Amino acid sequence: MPNTYFRDFRVLVTGASGGIGSALVKQLLRQGARIGVHYHKNKPDFDELISNTKLGSKENICFLKADLRKLKEVERLFRRFIDWAGGIDGLVNSAGDVHIRKHFFEVGEMDIDADLALNLKAPFWLSRLAIKNMEKNGIKGSIVNISSIAAKFGGSPQTLFYGLSKSALELMTFSLGRYCCAPLGIRINALRLGVFDTPFHQRHPKDLKERIQMIPAKRMGRPQEAVWWIMFLLDKRSTYMNGQTVSLTGGE
Questions:
Q1: What does the pLDDT read at residue 218?
Q2: Cα(54)–Cα(29) distance, rounded to whole angstroms?
């Protein structure tokens, strides 16, 4: 039975062309939400997104292209979403990636800036914009930041600043939740994901068999498992949860 809470729920999802982002968009559409579908290079297939959803779903999608490493594009993305939706009830900062796999003795300033810009700065700018808009309009909305197990293990010698940015993202989530969002009735939480079966690992190939054996559950996570938690954190049933990081890592 559909959750009526999400009917006409206005939510911006970044990184919606990814495995988890696209799965989330589909689930939100089934619930009747109005969704800003952000992408950078790979525009999601419209027909595939609305498959198995109710009639009229196409009216609930707005495709928004932006390079989140650039502040001006972040601000333009948000304005375009607000112009289309009329306001914001939810934000999911799902966009994230490793800029380049390079040993920390070899990384340059631009490599560091790129990792921090996408994985930390963009979620901060968007969260701040969303909080201000929610406060202005009296909306007790919710923000979900997607973190990574790299925040716990420090990434690797080749992904140090990706791990660093995710660790900082979790601290940012706690700080905004404690000092800004909770007093306003707005929620912000993070979901720390382990190894999931998504295109992320196709872009960054490595010995997944060996990596999976390190996971107590002995398997990768499935996108729909992450979607369930994101939906819960967006839902009003989690209104007493703020500034927290939930780990979905198969026991790691």
A1: 92
A2: 8
SS3 content of the chain, % helix, strand, coil (to 5): 50, 15, 35
Total-model pTM: 0.93
DSSP type of residue 117: I
**Average of per-residue pLDDT values in the chain:** 91
The pLDDT of residue 18 is 84
Other CB atoms closer than 10 Å to residue 127's CB: what's the count? 22
Domains delineated in the chain:
4-248 (3.40.50.720)
* Residues contacting residue 26 through CB under 8 Å, at least 6 positions apart: 49, 51, 52, 53
102, 152 Cβ separation under 8 angstroms = no
107, 27 in Cβ contact below 8 A? Answer: no
Q: Phi/psi at 219 (nearest 5 deg)?
A: -160, 165
Residue identified by tokens 């968007």 is 126
Q: Per residue in 112-153, pLDDT tens?
A: 899 999 999 999 999 999 999 999 999 999 999 999 999 999
